[in-house]
Design goal:
globular; 35 helices; Serine Threonine Protein Phosphatase 5, Tetratricopeptide repeat; three-stranded antiparallel sheet
């Protein structure tokens, strides 16, 4: 201000603002504005004011006045939390020189970058995930959660010192902050907010009106509008009456404001309302079950273990069982495991409904890698069923116990014994006309025949299982059978030139999506085996149309894996890899460990065939470190991947050992293509060792296998390769 005629007056007033004496607001605003104008005379000025939400009303008035009367190139940026607009709803509203902008949460990528900077480089990814999930893009919460981890001794001097599975809890100080905001609400608005928290992070006006039936509808609308202005809730579809809490912590703070007994009652009321109002929603069973389960747990926390609690448990269990059955039909094994697991925990131990769902829960546990749990569950199911005289339930659980053996490295004798026992069970089911039992027995038998190394027998049982499952209305068993029909046909002795005829005779006549998609896939592979590119593309298009039109996600991935394998054999490793990666995303999401295990071996070969040695070795090492499913095909293919990895690393002698181990396993089976692959791998290894005659002999053996299979493009490809 030096040299300005009003420098003294401005200086005096600025000193008063800083605490020396008193100043009228008008004088203070003039002094600040004058200072900014002088500074901006030389170049444009940017003024940043932080934490404006903490400012007292006189300071807010001063900022308002300065901005409105400014006559210079000055940008004033005021940073504040949403509380500012609660205190001063008209801040910046309707003023030509003011813009109010609400900053959205940090994008997921940015939030993660900030979390990693705050937590350090050594922090486990799982901890970063939990921190980011809790913070939901709010930098303040990211900082507070980081401070909390340090308080807990998990973070020291910016370095992670905790375990990889450390739990991340929401700090009490944030709850206190939110609680203070809620305490400022008027009683009726707070009641509305608390009742809205019962439905979850997202809530509907219609459900809320039921939960606050003593509050008139117009008052509820007013309360929601007030909560919206305060930034506690936000509209998702305001016209449709759909809202969400602005943050999960806001919802949690509101929820904690309710007494547990009242919460339990409200959850039960909401479940009853949903079962009527949302009856057409396919997810209503799971939604209602979760509210009934929550009501039960709240009552248990209060020590209320009475008849009403028992009724709540059974009602929740029934609804979880319904939801789990739908997930099972869609072959969503992870969701099935969760929902049926909840149902089994809630239903009476020997109830008919619980015994009915246990075999399916056993399947979900076994096929997502929890084999020991499946054994314990199914063994108990057999005992309970027999104890109440339900031989059918005992037999169904026994069938799944037999199926579960494929994950436990059974001996040939054990597999043969299991096949005989499963055949006996199938005979019992057939004599009683039990198509559900027959479908389950057929799936178990085709699994066991595959474990025995007979793709031909697996193919027969898969076709039977498909028919039984369709007749019984069992989508999961039908899907599994449909996948295995294509799989066993492709890897087994059935020649490619017979695929079209079998599809037309055994699959397409069913005229329903599962069998039709399998029929078109078989016709596509038959055309590919005959080097009929146009026919392959046409039938593949028909297959994809059925899969996409009917939403057959799991079956599409399983079929895609088979088609990818055939494409790799035909020389299209790039297309095969693309299809494999698409399938893996689906199968990993649904938790099917067997298909993932076999897919990963195919992926190694697809990458290796494209001359990407480093990536192949990385995939091969990951495969070697994983736990295998001990079926003959996976064991063979893992040996072949190991052989090729050793060969790449210059260890031809050990590569030969691995290749011969693969041949030793596959020789006891009718897995024609895997046998050909093993012989070709051995040929390459022997050639690298300079054993040219033996290499040629192994190659001739592979060509004989490919001729028997009728794989024209593979024959043409390997006939011209050295």
């Amino acid at each position: 201000m030096a040299g300005q005629p009003d420098a003294t007056s401005v200086g005096d007033r600025l000193a008063q603002i800083l605490g020396v004496g008193e100043a009228l607001a008008a004088d203070a605003a003039w002094a600040v504005r004058r200072l900014f104008e002088v500074l901006a005379a030389e170049r444009p000025l940017v003024v940043v004011l932080e934490d404006v939400h903490w400012a007292e009303p006189p300071m807010l008035d001063l900022i308002d006045s300065v901005v409105e009367r400014m006559h210079a190139p000055v940008l004033v940026i005021c940073l504040a939390r949403p509380e500012l607009l609660e205190q001063r709803p008209t801040w910046g509203a309707g003023k030509s020189r003011s813009i109010v902008s609400t900053l959205p949460p940090l994008a997921a990528e940015d939030a993660r970058r900030l979390a990693e900077l705050l937590l350090g480089t050594a922090v486990p990814a799982s901890v970063v995930d939990r921190v980011c999930d809790a913070a939901e893009g709010n930098p303040l919460y990211l900082e507070q959660l980081t401070a909390m981890l340090a308080d807990q001794g998990l973070l020291t001097d910016g370095r992670w010192t905790g375990s990889a599975d450390a739990e991340v809890e929401i700090p009490a100080t944030l709850h206190a902050l939110l609680a203070a905001r809620l305490d400022r609400l008027d009683p009726q608005t707070r009641v509305v907010l608390e009742r809205a928290s019962i439905e979850g992070r997202r809530f509907r006006t219609a459900a809320l009106l039921m939960l606050v039936s003593d509050v008139p509808s117009p008052d509820v609308e007013v309360a929601i509008a007030s909560l919206d202005r305060r930034g506690l809730v936000r509209p998702e579809d305001e016209a449709g009456g759909r809202w969400r809490f602005s943050h999960s912590l806001v919802r949690e703070a509101a929820y904690r404001g309710l007494a547990k007994e009242l919460r339990a009652d409200l959850h039960e009321r909401l479940a009853d309302w949903m079962l009527i109002e949302d009856a057409d929603d396919p997810d209503v069973d799971e939604s209602a079950a979760r509210h009934l389960e929550r009501a039960l747990h709240l009552r248990e926390e209060l020590g209320l273990r009475d008849e009403r609690s028992a009724e709540l448990a059974e009602r929740a269990g029934e609804r979880f069982a319904n939801a789990g059955a739908r997930a099972f039909a869609a072959v969503d094994l992870i969701t099935t495991r969760d929902l049926l697991g909840r149902a089994a925990a809630l239903l009476p131990a020997s109830s008919a409904r619980r015994l009915d769902i246990l075999p399916n829960l056993g399947v979900a546990l076994a096929e997502t890698g929890r084999h020991a749990e499946a054994d314990v569950l199914l063994t108990d199911a057999v005992e309970r069923a027999r104890a109440i005289g339900s031989e059918r339930d005992a037999l169904r659980a026994t069938i799944q116990l037999l199926s579960n053996r494929i994950f436990r490295s059974p001996t040939a004798t054990e597999v043969a014994s299991a096949i005989e026992e499963a055949r006996d069970a199938a005979t019992v089911f057939e004599s009683s006309g039990d198509e559900v039992g027959l479908a389950e027995a057929a799936i178990t038998l085709e699994y066991l025949e595959f474990m025995r190394g007979s793709a031909a027998a697996q193919h027969e049982w898969s076709l039977l299982g498909l028919g039984y499952a369709l007749a019984a209305g069992r989508p999961r068993e039908a899907s599994q059978a449909a996948a295995d029909v294509l799989w066993s046909a492709t890897i087994g002795p059935l020649a490619f030139d017979r695929f079209g005829a079998e599809a037309e005779a055994s699959l397409l006549p069913f005229d329903e999506p599962l069998s039709r998609s399998t029929g078109f896939a078989m016709m596509a592979l038959g055309a590919l085996g005959a080097s009929d590119e146009a026919g392959f593309r046409e039938h593949e298009r028909e297959w994809r149309e059925v899969i996409n039109h009917h939403g057959l996600t799991w079956l599409g991935a399983a079929h895609g894996l088979v088609i990818a394998g055939a494409e790799i054999w035909a020389g299209d490793a790039e297309g095969g890899e693309r299809r494999l990666r698409e399938a893996r995303e689906v199968l990993a999401a649904l938790g099917d460990i067997w298909w993932i295990s076999i897919l990963d071996t195919f992926l190694c070969f697809a990458v290796g065939a494209q001359d990407r040695p480093r990536e192949f070795l990385r995939l091969a090492d990951a495969l070697e470190a994983s736990t295998p499913v001990a079926d003959p095909q996976i064991l063979t293919r893992r040996s072949l991947v190991r052989a090729r990895a050793l060969l790449l690393r210059g260890d031809a002698a050990d590569a030969e050992v691995a290749a011969r181990r693969g041949i030793e396993i596959v020789e006891t089976t009718d897995l024609v293509l895997d046998h050909a692959d093993a012989l070709l791998t051995l040929s390459d290894v022997l050639q690298a060792r300079g054993l040219l005659e033996e290499a040629a002999s192994a190659r001739d053996g592979a060509m004989a296998k490919l001729r028997a299979k009728g794989h024209a493009p593979a024959l043409a490809r390997y006939a011209v390769e050295p």
